[in-house]
Design brief:
The protein has 171 residues and is α+β, with helices and mostly antiparallel strands. Helices cover 51% and strands 13% of the residues. Strand 3 and strand 4 form a beta hairpin. The protein is elongated.
Length: 171
């Protein structure tokens, strides 16, 4: 099921001064699943544990505290009762059942960034950007998409972004 998520391209100009090929990608294990979604599938125990951790950290804490979830810019430390733990398990089981029955929806963040950069490519290259600069621009847009869509969990997805020059060098 693992798929790499990356966008690679070569500078489109015939007589290009940079002769570069760069790659933009996200190395987090769940990046492809976020970008492309998944078909219905079984969830491993590790997956269940990760979902439960997310429910406890994000969803249930917000339900329990409402607008008091953050105080003075800091997350409030919660003490969970046995009843809370049972409810967290129930919510986790419901999410896992939904993944098994329906899969997960795609939340593209990299492909829209590449599309936007392609629309602006001529302008970017005209401003003396090289392909590495364009790749950095795409990485920034993709990271903004992750944060704006709220699809990052602890920031591991956004932090896993990378730009790599595969061929060529900066002028």
């Amino acid at each position: 099921m693992a798929r790499e998520i990356e966008a690679a391209w070569e500078d489109p100009r015939e007589l290009d001064l940079f002769d570069q090929e760069v790659e933009v990608g996200f190395g987090a294990a769940h990046a492809p699943w976020v970008e492309y979604g998944t078909d219905p599938h079984r969830v491993s125990q590790e997956g269940w544990d990760n979902i439960r951790s997310w429910v406890k950290r994000k969803a249930y804490a917000k339900i329990k505290l409402g607008s008091n979830y953050y105080k003075a810019g800091r997350r409030v430390k919660l003490r969970y009762t046995d009843e809370d733990e049972k409810e967290i398990d129930r919510i986790t089981d419901a999410i896992v059942w939904s993944i098994r029955k329906n899969g997960t929806d795609a939340h593209p963040f990299l492909r829209p960034a590449v599309d936007e950069a392609n629309r602006k490519l001529t302008r970017l290259l005209g401003e003396n950007y090289d392909m590495k600069d364009v790749a950095d621009y795409i990485l920034g847009l993709a990271t903004e998409n992750i944060n704006r869509k709220g699809i990052a969990d602890r920031g591991t997805l956004a932090q896993s972004g990378y730009v790599q020059v595969i061929r060529g060098k900066r002028p």
